[in-house]
Write a structure and sequence with these properties.
about 35% helix, Nucleotidyltransferase, domain 5, globular, alpha/beta, five-stranded mixed sheet
Amino acid sequence: MATVFVGIDVGSVTTKFAAVDQDGELVFDHTSRTAGRPIETVLAGLAHAATLLPSGAEVTGVGTTGSGRQLAGALVGADLVKNEITAHAVAALHFVPAVKTVIDIGGQDSKLIMLRDGIVVDFAMNSVCTAGTGSFLEQQANRLGMAVEDLGRRALRSSHPVRIAGRCTVFAESDMVHKQQLGHSLDDILYGLCQALARNYLNNLALGKALEAPVVFQGGVAANAGVVRAFRELLEMEVLVLPRHQVMGALGVALLVRDWQDGRSTQFKGFDIAEADYRATSFACQACPNLCEIAQIHLDGKVVARWGGRCDRWEGG
């Protein structure tokens, strides 16, 4: 019977599923919009994953990562719950063992991971400002009435890009309008926007850091050829984009749970939980002045998991 390890990456914009076999080869992957409903998205994704599983395959390990990793872990019965930095680093190392720099840009956050000899030595995250994330591009594409997928292709046609003030989405939009009024071509404006995103990322996350090759670019924004070109020009080095760049978090945690399993029994609750009645609530713990917000998951009216405190008072149930 084939052994399969599943990784789930729950982000604010998308939720990714990926599965690997014992050799670390990708078995399947699946991406869907989180749409502000992580429970429903995880359960629906799990039901879809069941249809992608090869005949006779058995899930012997499940891991979760991303901003919703605790929630997803409680829902599915995860064996490992890992932060995004670890998951993305492991995935990059799997495909590019010599990687030294990982640029990861998603819909609403961005990460920089620096590795030496396969070990994470530094990292930075930005989840506050959208000017260095995918939503920055998506907002402007929507304003211009084009699909965000077309933005990168149009940007590559630019021969004289204009400089866009990209440190803030509000300033960027007004600057783009101004450049349009001055008569600059849309292609040049779009590539200026891609440059602004790359410049803002480097100014926020890489300031004072020495980025070394090999550089791997992953996350949804890596699909934008204009942004890839902008990073290559700004860094003056090759930037690698891997074929499954958008699911690297899920892939990484799947690889981690494969290494963890080593004969252990999985806690995975099975694909039938996709039909279960789950809901989430929260409350403020009154045990100390911290007043931590505790999240909890209910299954058929019973609390099955709690997390979120600074201490372990509520961990595990």
